[in-house]
Amino acid sequence: SAVISQKPSRDICQRGTSLTIQCQVDSQVTMMFWYRQQPGQSLTLIATANQGSEATYESGFVIDKFPISRPNLTFSTLTVSNMSPEDSSIYLCSAEGESGTYNEQFFGPGTRLTVL
Amino acid sequence: QKEVEQNSGPLSVPEGAIASLNCTYSDRGSQSFFWYRQYSGKSPELIMSIYSNGDKEDGRFTAQLNKASQYVSLLIRDSQPSDSATYLCAVESGNTPLVFGKGTRLSVIA
Predict the structure, then answer these.
(1) Cis omega (within 30 of 0) on the bond before A109?
(2) Best of A34, A57, A105 to disrupt the B interface by mutation (most B CBs within 10 Å)?
(3) Which of A62, A33, A64 is closest to A47 using CA atoms?
């Protein structure tokens, strides 16, 4: 399975500022994703990070608010822009590698964001 | 819209019992099915994957898939307090991102 690391692990930010979260995978992967998880809630997919092209965003999420980069097959960043307290959440990076002929998806440890 | 349904729980079982977690999905074309375990404050951890009808066993865990009924389950034998967590069912259809259920919270009582 792929090993995924995220930086920072947590942060406390002021309203109106931006935070960039980094995600590093220890092997080349086909797909990378960004999720958000509110306390006690399930996972919400923000976007699929595409290598070399613009990310594919889910309904309710836009590039201006959550710009994403994926410059290569092992690294991606998510920026949370112009933050408000409603953005307080855990942000999870996920990668899909290949296990035999099937793809399995693994998660990083998450970034706990608090916006004051 | 593709949906994955799980009973939110909490599901409480005594230590040593079998815990049975259930999941239904709406997309009949779904091909891959996964169970994740998530401890409080941690990220989801993949514990089982299943791709064809029938049972798949891995240690104390057994995943069961019935595509005709659009139903996938996870059995945990000899449940331990350390199994207490939220279990997420996830379903994949072709080249689309996983669709996650809301999770079932399992509590194993010592």
Answers:
(1) no
(2) A105
(3) A33
* Pairwise CB contact (< 8 Å): B102 & A108: no
Mean pLDDT per 10-residue run, chain B (110 residues)?
87 97 94 95 95 96 97 98 97 85 95
- Closest to A23 (Cα-Cα) out of A2, A44, A41: A2
Q: In this predicted model, what pLDDT tens digit does every residue of A1-51 receive, in sequence order?
A: 789 999 999 999 999 999 999 999 998 888 899 999 998 888 999 999 988
The verdict on a CB contact (< 8 Å) between A102 and B49 is yes
DSSP state of B98: -
Contact indicator for B81, B108 with CB cutoff of 8 Å: yes
**Residue A96: both structure tokens together:** 């899909």
Distance CA B23, CA B87 (A): 10
Is B23 an 8 Å CB contact of chain A? no
8 Å CB contact of B49 and A33: no
